[in-house]
């Protein structure tokens, strides 16, 4: 058994209960650096809750979450972000009234305190980085547009861009292709494979084709516990997985 | 060419264009003093002190999404701080010689106090008083903000708590007559370092001082909104969780804007006391606090200058109507509020935004043409941005 610190993220014996209902129960989960991991599972399996707990939105009843050897379960949300954990929400969570440029600038990891934000200067470096990320998410020619006017798929990309600009070591994406067209899905898969270079990524996804196109290890959650783990091909043969999930 | 460029840049900035602030400055400093006699001008000056509070509400409610129904608290703290200084000066031993304890404010004597309470002592000094006016409202706002925002109290709950605090403060002041002057407030204020604040020249001077301070606060607000902080504030109003999980301690951002609003309101309160010559609990409680919100709503809660116009227009309307039909005013202001919320959620400023802006497009086009001609050397990334 290797020690905790060898992993980028190690979750042990994690339990959370909401009024007696255990959404996550005794969960152990380990992730290496630069790993791309997909989490699947039926509705109510605890996938989103797991991400909520890593980023501090939901607090654990028991157990530990260690990121680069640091305990996250008691850390405040913005500190977890400072440690290098980025989280994309399920529904596109962008600032609709601001422009695409402003959305990215607000997410730029500088001027994070009140007075830092007052003194923040939009210098060449900031502009370069914003254009770089905008280019990556294919929104460079729409920077001045109000973010609320983007299409659903573009909003999802924008939120991914808002995380990319912070250059997190661990990026967690909750159903990034939900509601996207087929071509948008392909583009997103391409984007995800690209941004997974040099960082760890957790993706929650329902769409099996999309999961297969991403590659990487898959974790199947069921009733707050890990049911199986491995590559997609092996899991497709697994009787338990078929019963609770794939068989539907 | 360079001058044209910097001039053009001055008029940019999405929030509170300098043009609109300049126009307001002209109206306040040139047009109104020319139109009004000193009585009306003094009245306008009094309404403009409410504009400070409305401006604070534009910042914290309009842009920050924090609705406070207790801004009277900060207006009151600023006003009382100034009133305490003026009252001590008005209560010199000679003019209070008929009291059983000469040299203390009259209401203290009536309540059988024999010496100045400890918390009145600093207000012997004008310097300390000015510091109190500038610091106390923001410090009190910090306490409230810290207690509320760190616990993630927001929305309607925050509004109710601030309203309750306004009531508590009113009751406290009314109940402690010997220390505060009670329901009458602190009255009969005459001089500031021997300078009679009631004569006409003083009123003119105070009016102008008030207008300059108001413009100064507008510029502060404009600056805050136009830097990254301002965009984070708008983001916060829209998607608080996204901001939090982008690495910001959301509570601190809310506390700051709430303190800034309180700071600005406190200055308004002090200027009120100076121009009107008294301060009383009736400017702290629920009714004034809600009126401040109405000023901001009518003027436009997303417009810095809108708050000022809202305060002026509604207050003048109140004076005119309340003279003729004192009973009807409450209904009228209620109706105005409902109409604004339903039809014009962004107030009078949105009417300008919809129709008035066209009037200025030729001017702006001219400026952009000048800019297009003169750019080139400074192209690069900045060009893409504009």
Automatic annotation (TrEMBL), chain A:
CDD domains: ABC_Mj1267_LivG_branched. Signal peptide: none annotated. PROSITE patterns: ABC_TRANSPORTER_2. Keywords: ATP-binding, Nucleotide-binding, Transport. Residues 9-248 form the ABC transporter domain. GO terms for cellular component: plasma membrane. GO terms for molecular function: ATP binding; ATP hydrolysis activity. InterPro entries: ABC_AA/LPS_Transport, ABC_transporter-like_ATP-bd, ABC_transptr_urea_ATP-bd_UrtD, P-loop_NTPase. NCBIfam families: urea_trans_UrtD (TIGR03411). This is ABC transporter domain-containing protein. It comes from marine sediment metagenome.
Automatic annotation (TrEMBL), chain B:
It is a multi-pass membrane protein. The chain crosses the membrane at residues 21-41, 47-66, 118-144, 156-175, 205-225, 246-272, 304-322, 328-349. Its main location: membrane. It is found in: Cell membrane. GO terms for molecular function: branched-chain amino acid transmembrane transporter activity. One of its GO terms (cellular component) is plasma membrane. InterPro entries: ABC_transp_permease, ABC_transptr_urea_perm_UrtC, LivM-like. Keywords: Cell membrane, Membrane, Transmembrane, Transmembrane helix. CDD domains: TM_PBP1_LivM_like (cd06581). This is Urea ABC transporter permease subunit UrtC.
């Amino acid at each position: 058994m290797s020690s905790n610190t060898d992993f980028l993220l190690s979750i042990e014996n994690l339990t959370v209960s909401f009024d007696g209902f255990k959404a996550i129960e005794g969960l152990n989960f380990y992730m290496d650096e630069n790993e791309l991991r997909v989490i699947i599972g039926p509705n109510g399996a605890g996938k989103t809750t797991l991400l909520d707990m890593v980023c501090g939105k939901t607090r654990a009843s028991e157990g530990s979450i260690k990121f680069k050897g640091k305990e996250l379960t008691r850390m405040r949300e913005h500190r977890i972000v400072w440690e290098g954990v980025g989280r994309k929400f399920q529904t596109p969570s962008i600032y609709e009234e601001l422009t695409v440029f402003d959305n990215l600038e607000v997410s730029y990891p500088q001027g994070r305190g009140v007075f830092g934000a007052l003194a923040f200067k939009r210098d060449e470096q900031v502009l370069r980085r914003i254009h770089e990320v905008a280019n990556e998410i294919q929104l460079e020619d729409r920077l001045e547009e109000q973010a609320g006017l983007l299409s659903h798929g573009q909003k999802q990309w924008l939120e991914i861009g808002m995380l990319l600009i912070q250059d997190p070591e661990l990026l967690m994406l909750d159903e990034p292709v939900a509601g996207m067209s087929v071509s948008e899905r392909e583009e997103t898969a391409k984007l995800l494979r690209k941004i997974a270079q040099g960082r760890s990524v957790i993706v929650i996804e329902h769409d099996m084709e999309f999961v297969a196109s991403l590659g990487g290890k898959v974790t199947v959650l069921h009733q707050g516990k890990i049911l199986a783990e491995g590559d997609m091909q092996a899991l497709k043969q697994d009787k338990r997985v078929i019963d609770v999930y794939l068989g539907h | 060419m360079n001058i044209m460029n910097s001039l053009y840049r001055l008029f940019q900035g999405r929030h509170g264009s300098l043009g609109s602030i300049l126009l307001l400055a002209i109206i306040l400093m040139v047009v109104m003093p020319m139109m009004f006699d000193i009585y009306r001008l003094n009245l306008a000056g009094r309404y403009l002190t409410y504009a400070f509070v409305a401006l604070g509400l534009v910042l914290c409610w309009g842009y920050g999404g924090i609705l406070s129904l207790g801004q009277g608290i900060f207006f009151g703290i600023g006003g009382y701080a100034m009133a305490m200084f003026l009252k001590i000066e008005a209560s010199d031993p000679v003019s209070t010689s008929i009291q059983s304890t000469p040299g203390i404010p009259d209401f203290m004597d009536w309540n059988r106090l024999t010496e100045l309470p400890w918390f009145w002592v600093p207000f012997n000094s004008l310097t300390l008083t000015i510091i109190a006016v500038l610091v106390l409202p923001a410090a009190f706002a910090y306490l409230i903000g810290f207690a509320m925002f760190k616990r993630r109290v927001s929305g309607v709950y925050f509004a109710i708590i601030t309203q309750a605090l306004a009531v508590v403060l009113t009751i406290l002041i009314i109940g402690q007559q010997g220390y505060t002057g009670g329901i009458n407030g602190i009255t009969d204020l005459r001089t500031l370092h021997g300078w009679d604040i009631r004569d006409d020249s003083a009123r003119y001077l105070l009016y102008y001082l008030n207008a300059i301070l108001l413009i100064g606060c507008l510029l502060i607000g404009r600056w805050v909104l136009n830097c990254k902080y301002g965009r984070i504030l708008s983001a916060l109003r829209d998607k608080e969780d996204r901001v939090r999980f982008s690495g910001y301690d959301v509570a601190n951002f809310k506390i700051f804007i709430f303190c800034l609003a309180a700071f600005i309101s406190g200055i308004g309160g002090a200027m009120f006391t100076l121009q009107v010559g008294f301060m009383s609990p009736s400017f702290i409680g629920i009714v004034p606090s809600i009126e401040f919100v109405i000023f901001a709503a009518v003027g436009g809660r997303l417009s810095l200058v809108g708050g000022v116009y809202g305060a002026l227009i509604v207050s003048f309307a109140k004076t005119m109507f309340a003279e003729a039909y004192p009973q009807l005013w409450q209904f009228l202001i209620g109706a105005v509020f409902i109409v604004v919320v339903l039809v014009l959620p962004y107030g009078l400023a949105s009417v300008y935004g919809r129709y008035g802006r066209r009037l200025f497009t030729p001017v702006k086009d001219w400026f952009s043409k000048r800019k297009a001609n003169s750019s080139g050397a400074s192209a690069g990334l900045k060009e893409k941005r504009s």
